[in-house]
Amino acid sequence: MLKTNNLGYPRIGALRELKKANEAYWAKKISQDELLQAGRQIREGNWKTQQDAGIDLIPSNDFSFYDQVLDLTLTVGAIPARYQGFAVEGASSYNLDLYFAMARGFQQEGLDVTAMEMTKWFDTNYHYIVPEFVKDQQFRLTSEKIINEFNEAKQLGIQTKPVLIGPITYLLLGKEKEAGFNRIDLIDRLLPVYEEILGKLAAAGAQWIQLDEPFLALDIDEKTRELYQQVYSRLSAAAAGVNLVVATYFESLRENTKTALNLPVQALHVDLVRGEDQLDELLAGAPADLILSLGVVDGRNIWKNDYEASLRKINRAIEKRGADRVWIAPSSSLLHVPFDLDLEDNEQSLPAEVKNWLAFAKQKLQEVKDLAVLATGDADTAIAQRFAANKSAQQSRRTSSLIHREEVKARVSSITDEDAQRTSPFAARKAKQQEKFNLPAFATTTIGSFPQTRDVRKWRADLKKGAITQAEYDQLIAEETERTIRLQEELDIDVLVHGEFERNDMVEYFGEQLSGYAFTKNGWVQSYGSRCVKPPVIYGDVSRPSDMTVRWSAYAQTLTNRPVKGMLTGPVTILQWSFVRNDQPRSETTYQIALAILDEVQALEKAGIKIIQIDEPAIREGLPLRKADHKAYLDWAVRAFRVSSSNVDDDTQIHTHMCYSEFNDIIEHIAAMDADVITIETSRSQMELLDAFADFNYPNDIGPGVYDIHSPRVPSKEEMVKLLEKAKAVIPAGQLWVNPDCGLKTRAWPETKAALEAMVDAAKTLRGIAEAV
Hints:
Layout: E1 3-4, H1 17-26, H2 32-52, E2 58-60, H3 68-75, H4 96-104, E3 106-108, E4 111-113, E5 118-120, E6 127-129, E7 132-133, H5 145-155, E8 160-165, H6 167-173, E9 175-176, H7 187-204, E10 208-212, H8 222-238, E11 243-247, H9 257-261, E12 267-271, H10 279-285, E13 291-297, H11 307-321, E14 326-330, H12 352-355, H13 361-374, H14 381-399, H15 406-413, H16 426-437, E15 443-444, H17 454-465, H18 470-491, H19 508-511, E16 515-518, E17 525-528, E18 531-533, E19 537-543, H20 550-558, E20 565-569, H21 571-576, H22 586-606, E21 611-615, H23 630-645, E22 653-658, H24 667-672, E23 677-680, H25 691-696, E24 701-704, H26 717-730, E25 737-738, H27 749-772
Helix pairs in contact: 1-2, 5-7, 7-8, 15-22, 17-18, 22-23, 26-27
């Protein structure tokens, strides 16, 4: 039988136990020991689930209380100097206060430190904490988490495969925090810590160690390619007889194939879902003794594996290499998919026919095992029955009447260039908008959502359970909306929002009102830290049957004379943050969503909402990992946004929002979106991200975020003024807006009020300086 290999498993728990434990710890409702016990329970459950599924190579150290990159930063002692107020204890200890301060910032007990920067993990919606490196960076082993968790599993009778981000990928994931060096040149200082870790794992009895090197599937230079051979020669020697598997994922190896195949390791994992075209080259070039781990089960999406298609790939590999040199695996860690499809029992939101097309993490383990057995012809009756059921599900999906709607396809095919073009250029639009709104310099606004308190979430839950009527729920939402409008007026914010109290999630809320969508009850995935999202499932053609947001935006506008922004999620973000159908090009699905959003934009405009924000935080996230593929994606992604936003009056002001992204390589395309105002995350990077807009001479208005809403700390007015001064040094003052980094949904009211008061004061200070000049 072929061996089965899993790269990683969801760590939030079947019912988000980790989220609840983390937040209880932050609120000082449970002790550190209780939080650590919650982590142990999740790890033990995950290991046993994989053991019961028959997985041969079960990962350890894939669990994290916040982020796996942050775990490694703490492990190798790359702790920024500003955290020196937190004691770095012995390597066997887990200093959670230091750990969470690095992730979230800290503002208590006389300490006030900012969080580390956060950005997207490759092209996923998972966010990692960016390592910070300085020229004289030193590394040392300051956490033995990876060894401790290996021993923890061993005590349960489970031999695991410890997982560690590879050293080259780790350095490339980070940022230089001062000039004069390249972070990759720190490799010689970093490697001794890796060698120490591998030696300790060997002494503990590890048989396999997984080193994740996804940068092997990206564009890297020749110097980095050469470095891989040198680095892994040292690591192989340090492993002292332990087998090493290098894992690549999210793309094919392409020009890095030879480098990856000739590393001095025992196994190489490759993604045959995102990089399905690379198998023949790998089979032709792999050394005779190298094991290939075939990632044939999609670790990024929730559709059932097509057993027949996967077996064709597997059988080609076996024919070429033999069964003892082939493993079966998911394409990547299963971190990016929900926990267990068996927890879904609501046929109204997830019809049985659609559910039959899906597989979550637990089911994907079964798929991996089934394929390993089927490929060797040893299937028993139960597996044979699952194979037959799999073929039936694939056929059902190909022929289902739920999926296709000809009127939707026809509307997409009729899109013209004029449909993606505003009537007038930005300068003319800005003049008309200023005449209409008469906004001050450094106009203030927020990104959309306001705190969703326990009460707000309870109202939603009570409505679902039937504990309150729709009318009672609507009255509560109306009262909360009015309170928020009044607060914004008191704070003297210039452009208001209604607060989005009726919305569960910025994508799920829209999906629930669009055709072609299904929804899960417990399909949670981790976005960052304790933040989990429940992506909707796009299974068919998408359209908008009726208004989605007009009621509450229009109601809020009746409460104030100040402009209220209509709040929408953009077509690319709705696509990216959904589980997307894989039976047609993603561009086609995006255009369908764009037309639905356009219908909503026009309905808002007709209702008197003349400032409309169409959020696109995921447009950079969707960028293909290889530069050669960028243009094709950006062409349709930008065009889809313009289709959703262009068919409006000149005096209707279109905003968009992006967060936690690097913009340098796509700045021209962001400008081509032609939004009147773009708001972006910049506070964690201390306005570094704004340099791309300055170097490009960005033509439209821009609101660089002046405080980090992903941290509970409240920045001072002076801190925000300094950030705005930095912004003003690179962007003309007349183009600048003042706003937070992102929506305020996850924050508490006291910190929100304090931060917004400081933000408005900072804007007024800048106005005063400008008037004085």
